[in-house]
Amino acid sequence: MQMTMTCAEESRAVSETLAGTFKPADTFFLIESSLPDYGGWNGEAVKSAATGGPFAPILAHLQSAPRTKVLFIRRPQSQALNFYIALTNQAAPRIYQASLAAYDELLQLDISSLAADETPRINGRDLDEIDELYIVCTNGRHDPCCAAHGAPVYHELVAQAGAERVWQTTHIGGHRMAATLIAFPQGIVYGHVDPPDVEALVTNQRAGYLLAHKYRGRGAYAGHALDAAAHQAVGAAEAVIRERARQYRLDDLRLQEVQVLGADRQRVAFLDADGGLHCAEVTTGLSAPRLTSCGDAPKPMPQHEVRLMAAD
Questions:
Q1: What is the DSSP string of 90-140?
Q2: CA 213 – CA 211 distance, rounded (Å)
Q3: What is the C-alpha to C-alpha distance for residues 243 and 299, in angstroms, rounded to an integer?
Q4: Which tens digits make up the pLDDT trace of 88-110?
Q5: Dihedral sign computed on CA atoms, order 163, 208, 199, 14
Q6: φ, ψ dihedrals at 135, nearest 5°
Q7: What is the pLDDT of residues 244-302, one digit of tens each?
């Protein structure tokens, strides 16, 4: 009998490269809700909530900010209305928390203030800055791999980081790389995470290091508003440069420049903490057809070839 693999099993079987698989987001909005008015978390929970019902005007308001990603979050037995803002496109990324009396309060959030070096305010009160937060995709109605791989990682994250710092989330993107999660405030994205990886991931995050072999990319690079293609190319280059230079601290490398060399070809330059320049040329093509979601037909996916270059 012929056996078939899930999308996550196939991604692991072909050793899919994780780095360069996350699209840019300067600002993340995390809203606690199981969406009871929408039948719960469906496959496209945020898109569904944006089309009508009580969340539609709230999401329209939040998504008026440039380069945002809105996610719904939840945890077992929680009855509160928690809300978080993560500002990742900064030299000093931050994450803020508020407990809402009602979701309509989010309409009072001053979106224009998020680009300034100010503490966000809702209804005249400052949001509280917190030190860390982890969200892991468990949205099995989007893809069963998210629940199968995400739920065990969620429970291990709770054990390692504490329940108050960990949430389940709707679709992050890249469910074939489940379990996939984001560590804030920097917006560091990981994939193919298994429960035995979690202790090292949390320990590294708290010490200011990446877990390099699980790294998919980050939400944003401080001071650079890259389109999706350039952002993913930079993520691919960053991972290779870090491995070659053994630069694993989050602050070891800072993106200096992205130069377009031609169609699907870019030159990426990073500076290290000592002022050393690290350069790579990234050529983006397409992989052989592969499963991107369980039940869908295989299709080619972007694939990055990274070539290290001597600094000019």
A1: SSS-EEEEEE-SSGGGGGG--GGGGGTTS--EETTEEPEEES-EEEEE--T
A2: 6
A3: 29
A4: 988 899 999 999 999 999 999 98
A5: positive
A6: -125, 135
A7: 999 999 999 999 999 989 889 999 999 999 999 999 999 999 988 888 888 888 899 88
- CA dihedral 38→43→45→47, nearest 10 degrees, is -110
Residues 6+ apart with CB under 8 A from 281: 261, 265, 266, 267, 268, 306, 307, 309
Q: Which domains does the chain have, with CATH numbers?
A: 1-225 (3.40.30.10)
Q: What is the pLDDT of residues 184-196, one digit of tens each?
A: 999 999 999 999 9
Closest by alpha carbon to 75, among 16, 136, 127? 136
Nearest of 117, 114, 98, 112 to residue 27 by alpha carbon = 114
